Amino acid sequence: MQVYSEGTHLIVPWFERPIIYDVRARPHLVESTSGSRELQMVKIGLRVLTRPVPGQLPTIYLTLGENYNERILPSIIHETLKAVVARYNTSQLILREREFTAAIEAKQVAVQDAERTKFIVEKAEQDKKSAIIRAQGEAKSAQLIGQAIANNPAFITLRKVEAAREIANTISNSASKVFLDSDDRCCTFPS
């Protein structure tokens, strides 16, 4: 099995079928009733953001199937929530609600900032690679032009003709009128 990113991919009909997973972070709302340290029942609502790791999708599919969220998440979330709530008194849970919310929001902001920074670094690396490739291409082009000039001096005349055609094409497509003196040509060619 192979993981493909979004886009167009070729498959062989009747032999291959795509299994599409959403790899964006998705919220799951969970309501749970669990006991505090004082053994009082507390009803808590929890919002969990989950997303699969794209590289692990074949393993997830083979072991858990397509609906892995419904099979795994409820039990893990309820067990973890009960274990965490059991550590606190009811009064602590009420007082620390704002702290928990602020801590969770701060963590999400930090994760988003880290992802944004990672994207900026990757973009800078790609820009650096493209600049290197562009410079190598220009150097190779200059080398080939130098060889062409050394091998055949008429190459410069050919370039002048190409430039004159380009200028004439630009002037002819222009909306404004251009008058040129017949004695003053853009390029002088040897007779």
From TrEMBL:
One of its GO terms (biological process) is mitochondrion organization. GO terms for cellular component: mitochondrial inner membrane. It is a single-pass type II membrane protein. The keyword Phosphoprotein does not apply. Residues 2-136 form the Band domain. It holds the Pfam family Band_7. It comes from the Eukaryota. Keywords: Membrane, Mitochondrion, Mitochondrion inner membrane. The keyword Metal-binding does not apply. It is found in: Mitochondrion inner membrane. InterPro entries: Band_7, Prohibitin. Component of a prohibitin multimeric complex in mitochondrial membranes. Belongs to the prohibitin family. This is Prohibitin. It comes from Carya illinoinensis (Pecan). The lineage of its organism: Eukaryota, Viridiplantae, Streptophyta, Embryophyta, Tracheophyta.
